[in-house]
Write a structure and sequence with these properties.
By secondary structure, the protein is of the alpha+beta class. It contains 18 helices and 33 strands.
Length: 692
């Protein structure tokens, strides 16, 4: 089975080819084409097929991590969106909840108010009401009112409509009928419902999630359709699978229906790639550290399991989101991050990025602002003539010119300014890791840092040193680890039902019926995607809380029909999860099941563990020596540094820093006072001195 994984980043599009029957792997990178990302995807696929000597028709599956939905939200460049909701509830998506993002700020930005997904004039209300606890109809839906609202939205040029009614998670009938009417009136519009996107309680978050789906829906649907057509045009007849934020992949048809599945698509693939690398290296506690051209993405993995977001913390661009997602923290820090003085005269690096066009000044594409890449080149940590394996030459004079201009403004030397850029960006990234570890009661010193992405290996060791982490893993192909992560997962769909049942009075018949119905629906969906019965499986979880609490914790639910004994294991799992999260448990307090969830898994062939290239000797791997600048004990020093060719490094033989390891898809920095070696799987293991 021949597969290609494609991950579109802000600067480069990364690709990996793998023949899953033989284990053969080949990598490739091309420049991202921001105006139409599919152009870069197709260019990369056709070039990669030529490199490995196969035709596009021989590719069985293309796995794709996309940033289309993410960028549409981050840049607020989605469709003109409308909403139809209950009378009197037009402003739910504006008011939000009483919690403030910043408790004591009276001038804070609230995204849903400052840049609403649905403008107020495009929010229409109609009569009709369903009521809890069963979703019974209190007032019939005003179908004529829905038609009138749709006509008004059509006349206003609305491209997408979210239908959001109260208590639709209990009974979706009104939403379904309203959506049918809207689709009839507006056949070219993207129409979705809150009960389809996220059938669970909390109307503000559910309505906002549906609004997000509508906001990005047309753009995602057009992109997927265009990509499928383009793949067919170049001869790819295999299936297209899209990375979902939950850590699974979905079919193109499912993503077109539920575009919110892809809001953290490429980032999720990076965490999976990091987990794959850690498992091969037999490391059970990992911090994944993915740095590309525009962002740094951080995930936590313990015993092969990645952390998932909950209803308290799931958001994108500040908008709350009710969707299963890997817990990934992203900051604007990458190779293209621009160093500048803010309005108050403070020295900043990022979040603004030079991106793919014009890119850093060193790329020679017209960039005139100093970036992190330019700083690395000024300090000697990048090779002008051996970037991307020699596939791209860097312009050192341009890098020195733009960093030099900033140095004059700051009154510092060229090298002090360049090193200052790296110090700021490295501390920004270290603080981001602290927010996911130290601030959650996790000691990062117990973890290994997996550094990947085009710029991760450049910064990984120094960021680890700031945090007291002793070990850094650099994967065999760090620049395309996210693309490789696409080849390590399964087809995955999720279902959820709200329960509101309390321990001591559980209606087992209802609970078992809901779980069985969700599994049956997911099984039908997997069968429609041609997954054999023996390759289908299910994972159950529940969102639980003590009665009176406002938020839930996710715990596993056993397979099969549940009885009182099975429920006892669920209660015990919740007590343990609460103690781990908050430091205590209330074992005498009643527990409430808020939601039950089922994930349907379609097992797919996966990437096999890699083996290290045969290599050679340190002498054979040595390219040259040259000066590089590092800060040691607070002093900026110039070190004579050895540059190595990674493919020629011997397995198991240690070499001391400072050293620079060059390869086609990334550059690894081994700083002073550290030791590196290549393990049997081809990872570079960098061990830092405890005193750093």
């Amino acid at each position: 089975m021949k597969t290609i994984g494609v991950d579109v980043g802000g600067t480069f599009t990364d690709l990996v080819y793998c023949d899953l029957s033989t284990g053969a792997v080949e990598i490739h990178k091309v420049s991202t084409t921001p105006d139409d990302p599919s152009r870069g995807v197709l260019t990369g696929i056709t070039e990669l097929c030529d490199i490995v000597g196969v035709t596009p028709a021989e590719i069985d599956t293309v796995f794709h991590g996309t940033t289309i939905a993410t960028n549409a939200v981050l840049e607020h460049k989605g469709a003109t969106t409308g909403m139809i909701t209950n009378e009197g509830f037009r402003d739910i998506v504006h008011i939000g909840r009483h919690q403030r993002v910043l408790h004591y700020s009276i001038r804070q930005e609230l995204p849903w108010q400052d840049r609403p997904l649905v403008k107020r004039r495009h929010r229409k209300t109609v009569a009709g009401r369903l009521v809890p606890p069963t979703g019974a109809e209190l007032e019939p839906l005003d179908e004529a009112g829905v038609r009138d609202a749709a006509l008004e939205l059509k006349a206003a040029g609305v491209e997408a409509v979210a239908v959001c009614f109260l208590f639709s998670y209990l009974n979706p009938a009104h939403e379904k009928r309203a959506a049918e009417i809207v689709a009839d009136v507006m056949p070219d519009a993207f129409v979705t419902t809150s009960s389809f996107v996220s059938p669970q309680f909390r109307e503000f978050e559910r309505f906002t999630t549906a609004g997000l789906a509508a906001f990005v829906g047309p753009k995602v649907r057009r992109y997927i359709a265009h990509l499928e057509e383009a793949l067919a045009y170049v001869g790819v007849r295999g299936e297209l699978r899209i990375m979902a934020s939950s850590g699974g992949v979905a079919t193109a048809a499912m993503v077109a229906e539920k575009p919110t599945l892809t809001l953290l698509s490429g980032l999720a693939a990076g965490v999976l790639g990091g987990a794959f690398v850690g498992a091969i290296a037999d490391r059970r506690k990992l911090i994944t550290f993915d740095i590309g051209g525009t962002s740094a993405d951080i995930g936590i993995i313990v015993d092969g399991r990645f952390a998932e977001t909950d209803s308290r913390s799931t958001s994108i661009a500040g908008f709350p989101l009710l969707a299963p997602m890997i817990d990934i923290h992203t900051i604007g820090a990458g190779g293209g991050s621009i160093a500048h003085l803010d309005r108050g005269g403070a020295f900043r690096v990022g979040p603004r990025s030079a991106g793919a066009v014009p890119g850093p000044a060193a790329y020679g594409r017209g960039g005139e602002e100093p970036t992190v890449t330019d700083a690395n080149l000024v300090l000697g940590r990048l090779d002008e003539d051996d970037f991307l394996g020699g596939g791209m030459a860097l312009d050192g004079s341009a890098a020195r010119r733009v960093v030099g201009r900033l140095a004059e403004t700051l009154g510092l030397s060229l090298e002090e300014t360049a090193e200052g850029i790296l110090t700021v960006i490295n501390n920004n990234m270290a603080n981001a890791i602290r927010s996911r570890t130290v601030q959650k009661g996790i000691d990062p010193r117990d973890f290994a840092l997996v550094a990947f992405g085009g710029a991760g290996p450049l910064h990984g060791a120094e960021v680890a040193a700031i945090l007291g982490i002793r070990e850094v893993l650099v994967p065999p192909f760090p620049g395309i680890t996210s693309a490789m992560g696409l080849l390590t997962t399964d087809l995955k769909y999720d279902a959820v039902r709200t329960q509101f049942q309390v321990s001591g009075g559980i209606d087992l018949a209802r609970l078992n019926a809901d779980l069985a119905e969700m599994e049956a629906g997911l099984d039908e969906r997997l069968a429609a995607d041609h997954v054999p019965a023996e390759k289908r499986g299910f994972q159950r979880t529940g969102d639980l809380r003590y009665v009176g609490q406002g938020y839930e914790l996710k715990v596993p639910i056993p397979a099969g029909p549940l009885d009182e004994a099975a429920l006892d294991t669920v209660w015990e799992a919740f007590h343990a999860a609460h103690a781990a999260e908050y430091g205590h448990a209330f074992r005498q307090s009643p527990i409430e099941i808020v939601n039950v969830r089922v994930s349907g898994i379609g097992v797919m062939p996966k990437l096999k563990p890699l083996t290290a290239p045969e290599g050679g000797s340190l002498e054979a791997a040595t390219i040259r020596t040259g000066p590089c600048v590092f800060r040691v004990d607070g002093v900026l020093e110039r070190f004579e540094t050895t540059f190595y060719r990674r493919t020629l490094l011997p397995v198991g033989e240690a070499f001391a820093g400072p050293a620079i390891v060059l390869q086609r898809d990334s550059t690894t920095v081994v700083p002073p006072r550290s030791i590196a070696r290549v393990d049997a799987a081809g990872n570079i293991l960098i061990t830092l001195e405890a005193s750093r």
